[in-house]
Amino acid sequence: MLPALAPFPKGLTQAALDTLMPMHVALDAAGRVRATGPTIGRIVEAPFGAPFFDLFAIRRPEGIGDPATLRARAGERLFLRSRGAEGTFRGVAVADAEDGTLVNLSFGPGIIEAVRRYGLTEADFAATDLAIELLYVVEAKSMIMEELRTLNVRLRGAKNEAEQQARTDPLTGVRNRRAFDLALDEVLSGQGARPFGLMHVDLDFFKAVNDTLGHAAGDAVLRHVATVLTQETRTSDTVARIGGDEFMVLLPNVADRARLFEIAERVISQLSQPIDQSGKRCQVAASVGLWSSVGAQGPLLNTEILAQLDAALYAAKRQGRARACFAPDGYGSAWPSRP
Amino acid sequence: MHGLINRSIQCFLRETFGAAFWQHVAQEARLGIDGFEAMLDYDDALSEAVIAAAGRLLDRSRDSLLEDMGTYLVTGTGDRGLRRLLRFGGPTFADFLHSLDEIPDRARLALPDIELPALEVVEHAGANLTLWCRFPLSGAGHVIVGLLRAMADDYGALCLVEHRGEVAGAEVVGVSLAAAAFAAPRPFDLAMPPV
Questions:
Q1: B37 and chain A: CB distance < 8 Å anywhere?
Q2: By three-state DSSP, how is residue A60 classified?
Q3: Mutation target vs B (from A111, A122, A129, A132; most B CBs, 10 A cutoff)
Q4: Tell me, what DSSP letter sits at residue A169?
Q5: Domains in chain A, start-ordered, CATH in brackets?
Q6: Is the N end or the C end of chain B the one with fewer CB atoms within 10 Å?
Q7: Do B82 and B55 share a domain, yes or no?
Q8: Average pLDDT, stretch A123-152?
Q9: Complex ipTM value
Q10: Average pLDDT score over chain A
């Protein structure tokens, strides 16, 4: 038969308190330190007999500055600051059987920093404390974050490359039709504030090069054209290959007709020089249609602009090859496209 | 299988046998990608294909390759890797061994969707214990053998670890601890080392 069940034992030994609460501070009725747990003893210098309120300030709740008040507020969550050591603590006080007070402390969110600063080990925490699990999770999560960070860097690189490819003509390295359309839309959306000019460059005799000298020669000619156009324009201009032997150049802030003519003449002159492709002479020429935002009646549609540009190119071809032309007055969206 | 596991396999192969070898493995396994991403899930068949391809190309048995991978998981990742996370298992090698059955729960604290080998620890007389390892990837017990040998070194313990085959769907790993403090342990600080 079991003996009669005794009530909870009156006192725990100091060793038992140290095991259960390695960060406790035991005070007498006058608020003087009688004992400290081993861990708090390593962090805060709290000699036997030192007044508790000389060692710690209670930041919240406000108004707890003497032993009697502390005892009266037993059970409440306390936010404390050490006066001597770095760091803040969470705590709770309970009255003991001898008119004294037992204050148990823990680190709160400052735990990571405290472990580093005081070189704490597993032995500094109660066996039931979840501090080690917390440190473990923080470390595991930082490793995962690091993985994700490197993944993000890789993805950003891949994204930039894919975007670049999506806007580039693989043969010549200049922009493609899609990139040109985007650039034109962008400059049109800022219409009025921003004048601009366009050049539509169409090669003459390109088919002859392809047919007689082969596709490799044709490709070399296209790359040469792209190089000339890039050299004759600024980096802020958009040079694009929009079709087989058709190129388009968008020149923001260049709307002066004479200036556009000048650039076109330079391009035409350079492209009329024969180029050497593996010992074979490739001779092409370029016709250029020109368009300027000066005098244009807004709002402009890109389809209208492209139709006018088309008409300009047609006019250039009709004047004989290797010419540059603006669209004749009155050409607009209603004008039939090139026959 | 979780991307972290696949990425560990990839890192092991790439860092042990070279980047070119890894590319060769990826090709041979018909992976269709350059490599695994840590935070994505992959079909188990891909992990199997990679391990099989690496074994074929190296002319190594699956078991010995997986055991080397277990060692790599501890020793190959420097001071910021899995080795540190495993040392959270306890201050001594014996504590660590008894923490092994908590590994899946611990891992889920950080990554709720990760599945790691379930390890059941059974203690015997003396300093012997048996681990029952259950995992979808066959041969995971050999990874555990390599990992435990490396962790014993880390703790400075001397022990015998051996794979005892498969019983009722579980791989059985035997551990006999000869000396808990045989050599100086590698230092372990609860605080994370600075980046």
A1: yes
A2: strand
A3: A122
A4: -
A5: 14-133 (3.30.450.260), 177-326 (3.30.70.270)
A6: C
A7: no
A8: 91
A9: 0.84
A10: 89
Residue B190 to residue A120, Cβ atoms within 8 A: yes
- Does the pLDDT at position A91 exceed 60? yes
Q: Do B38 and A138 touch (CB under 8 A)?
A: no
In a domain, B27, yes or no: yes
CATH number at residue B113: 3.90.1520.10
pLDDT at B157 over 90: yes
The beta strands (E) that lie in chain A are given as 24-27, 33-36, 56-60, 78-82, 88-95, 101-106, 196-204, 238-241, 246-252, 275-277, 280-282, 285-292, 324-326
Note whether B99 and B157 are same-domain residues. yes
Q: B153 and B121, same structural domain?
A: yes
Structural domains counted in chain B:
2
Q: Residue B38 is nearest to which of A132, A137, A151, comparing CB atoms?
A: A151
A67-86 tens-digit pLDDT: 999 999 999 999 999 998 87
Q: Does residue A6 have a pLDDT over 50?
A: yes
* Co-location of B85 and B171 in the same domain: yes
Distance in angstroms (rounded) separating the CA atoms of residues B191 and B195: 12
Spell out the residues 6+ positions from residue B15 whose beta carbon is closer than 8 angstroms to its own: B72, B76
Q: According to the model, what pLDDT value does residue A195 have? A: 87
Separation CA A11–CA A17 (nearest Å): 10
Residue B188 covered by a domain? no
Which of the residue ranges A8-17, A50-59, A69-78, B105-114 would you say has the lowest mean pLDDT?
A8-17
DSSP letter (8 states) at residue B186: P
Residue of B nearest to A115 (CA): B191
Question: What is the tens place of the pLDDT at every residue in A191-245?
Answer: 555 789 999 999 988 888 888 888 888 999 999 999 999 999 999 999 999 988 9
Count of C-beta atoms within a 10 Å radius of residue B170: 16
Domain membership of residue B159 as a residue range:
73-179
- Could you tell me if B93 and B160 lie in one domain? yes
Contact call for A133 and B106, based on CB within 8 A: yes
Report pLDDT digits (tens) over B32-80: 888 898 888 999 999 999 999 999 999 999 999 999 999 999 998 766 6
CA distance A241 to A200: 10
The predicted model scores a pTM of 0.73
| CA distance, residue A257 to nearest chain B CA (Å) | 52
- The tally of CA atoms less than 13 A away on the side-chain side of residue A78 is 26
Give a yes or no: residue B193 inside a domain: no
